[in-house]
Design a protein that fits this description.
2 domains, Aldehyde Dehydrogenase, Chain A, domain 1, G-glutamylP_reductase_CS (chains A, B), seven-stranded parallel sheet, glutamate-5-semialdehyde dehydrogenase activity (chains A, B), proline biosynthesis (chains A, B), Gamma-glutamyl phosphate reductase (chains A, B), homodimer, about 425 residues, alpha/beta, Aldehyde Dehydrogenase, Chain A, domain 2, 16 strands, four-stranded parallel sheet
Chain lengths: ~425, ~425
């Protein structure tokens, strides 16, 4: 049974905000030391964390969650070690905060600097995975931000224990334990209170399914860094190299079908289809990929079913794929415009003119020519850890590492300049 | 009489979005040429613009608007020439769009570029000033964005005429006239439709009074670049140079009291007050500044009235100022934390330690040491034109020039890379 705890969300956000002020001024070494201390405490308290996780797993079994969900929820010694190691990794990353990103002097002698500063207080709203609790905290503290954590109800026992260990660890560091706040409630209202707490929370980062993300985007007055839903397309052009095309299609669809940078629709130029139909059928069959197609695709592929509107519009997150046959790149671009979620879109072509048009016209965080969409990922791109993949256009776009958790401040130093 | 026109906001936003796609790919020279053409047409059509403006002015007189409002609304030959010249200035500014802001190659050979791209469609929601119609359009087009304009009802005749001239001018250029959309309605519902049009509008920029801005922030699901309310403070420290302190106070309060970077509260260290009381009284009197103070300020200054909560919290936009006496810099910082609007905050001190703490702890777009807050302004900082001053923390912060109207896109070029 989950214990319902009375929480005072506003008070917690205020504590976080207060802690963020001093945290924002701490030197990098102090923050790194704190992360290492948290990592050690997490590992040392593995047994307690696993015991709490066992309660969540028991509740999950009772609730009849599916295997994939239970897997996301489950912790073991290795997974706890993984998130401790994750914090040690973040301690090694460059600290963006305090960087002077630009500097100039006006004719009147006024010196102008733009300095990277922490956002302040990050509100993290997420679903089942308990590792996000430690990962997000590490990224927030390293970049000088306090964090308010609101995890999914199904992981509340695990999250509570992880936070308790992290806060206890902070008592041994120069970071106030108030910098990490855990909303210990399964009440939806507690989440909704975060949506409008503009006075005390600087940004909300929702991480989870489409429903969670739209609830935050549609109801929040706090600025939102929208993450994640990826209805990604692979367009195989008439000038595609067939070997690359099939390798990319298979990788983007099957490597990890449940993640946001997996492909959900393949768009194929009719000339490519005509030239490589047998190989296409063979490749899909070998890789257990089921097709929901438009008329031309259904005609060409035995066993393909007709795609419904929702199959063009939504992620399958499985070995299913939607398939559209087009007569030119502009038709592919129009389809992506209509159904894409501005995450990752790929073209396979050796025609540079066609590639240029695709790269220019498609509006997405990441555009690929001749590579799998699976590279839209902080670690694959060399950022170290990431707090999510932004699919919105303001500020951080694409995989968000430490710099995405900062903003800038103009700092002007003068000797009495007036206008 | 204002004519109520049936408008189809969604259709207009769709047209803008379609136009933005090709506009985003146009070379800088083509966009500059279009701006110069618009400028020439505006000047050539001054008579028609002034005739339309006369209708707005007549309506305004009938409605009994005050002199300051009528002044913001009024156009004359010089003002029309000013906004034509503004477009010519924007044509000379560097084009941010297309800039490769970063580039690296992964170990597997995948080339990664981050490229600055236009945001897409900008929804501009603003109040009386008709010059915003031309200024915002120039900045949007130069940075490769389409724009949907929703101006204040009181300027609807002027705005309609200005837009009509600009669209006619675009017919002589390579930019589609659909890239500029004017919501020809005084119906509040037309504005509200823009708030949630996420499919077709990429960002909303509200520009006007606090009420307008909060209506947008509280109701929009489209990302908002929040601009402008400036409840700015000048903190005069015990280690302030008195001559600089008074010059900055007078400049920040009186140079243009109605603008957002004017000072609204002065916070004075008690030691400074004690040392310079007579000079302070004299300076305020000479400059016709009325004081609403806390207890200590009222005690020290003859004629000062007690400040109410709303006077600490809101802009006066007049020669009134709120005054608080403090015993250290932290008390000043706490007051700014409570009442500031994250716009521009200044400290006058020759003590570098105190200045460092103020600059580090105060959370605002612009922090000044020994200079007037009046420099928070695109042209004063050397950006050329600005579309507004952002007081939010995501993406663009402070004065927003052309780069603030762009985002980035990751463009990856490979030869078959998969994970």
């Amino acid at each position: 049974m989950t214990t319902m705890t009375k929480v005072n969300v506003k008070q917690q956000a205020q504590l976080a905000q207060k802690a963020s002020k001093e945290l924002g001024l701490l030197p990098t070494g102090t923050k790194n030391q704190a992360l290492l201390t948290i990592a050690d405490h997490l590992e040392a308290n593995t047994a307690a964390i696993l015991a709490a996780n066992e309660k969540d797993l028991a509740n999950g079994r009772e609730a009849g969650y599916d295997a994939a969900y239970m897997d996301r929820l489950a912790l073991d010694t290795d997974r706890v070690k993984d998130f401790a190691d994750g914090l040690r990794q973040v301690a090694k990353l460059e600290d963006p905060s305090g960087e002077v990103t630009d500097e100039w002097t006006l004719d009147n002698g006024l010196n102008v600097q733009t300095i990277r500063v922490p956002l302040g207080v990050i509100g993290m709203i997420y679903e089942a995975r308990p590792n996000v609790t430690a990962d997000a905290t590490g990224l927030a503290l390293k970049s000088g931000n306090a964090i308010v954590l609101k995890g999914g109800s199904s992981a509340i026992n695990s999250n509570r224990q992880i936070v308790s260990v992290m806060k206890e660890a902070l008592e041994h560091t120069e970071i106030s334990s108030d910098a990490v706040q855990f909303i210990d409630s399964t009440d939806r209202q507690a989440t909704e209170e975060l949506f409008t707490m503009k006075e005390h929370i600087d940004v909300l980062i929702p991480r989870g399914g489409g429903k969670l993300i739209s609830a935050v985007v549609n109801n929040a007055t706090v600025p939102v860094l929208e993450t994640g839903v990826g209805n990604c397309h692979i367009y195989i052009d008439k000038d595609a190299d067939a070997k690359k095309a099939f390798a990319i299609l298979v990788n983007a669809k099957t490597d990890r079908p449940a993640v946001c940078n997996a492909a959900e629709t393949v768009i194929i130029h009719e000339a490519f289809l005509n030239a490589h139909k047998d190989e296409l059928i063979e490749t899909l069959k070998e890789n257990n990929i089921s097709v929901y197609g438009d008329e031309a695709a259904c005609k060409a592929l035995p066993g393909a079913e007709k795609a419904e509107e929702e199959q063009w519009a939504n992620e399958f997150l499985s070995l299913d794929i939607a398939m559209k046959i087009v007569s030119d790149v502009d038709e592919a671009i129009s389809h992506i415009d209509e159904y894409g979620t501005k995450h990752s879109e790929a073209i396979v072509t050796d025609n540079e003119e066609t590639a240029k048009r695709f790269k220019g016209m498609v509006d997405a965080a990441a555009i690929y020519q001749n590579a799998s969409t699976r590279f839209t990922d902080g670690s694959a791109l060399g950022f170290g850890a990431e707090i999510g993949i932004s699919t919105q256009k303001l500020h951080a776009r694409g995989p968000m590492g430490l710099p995405a958790l900062t903003t800038i401040k103009y700092v002007m130093t003068g000797d009495g300049q007036i206008r």
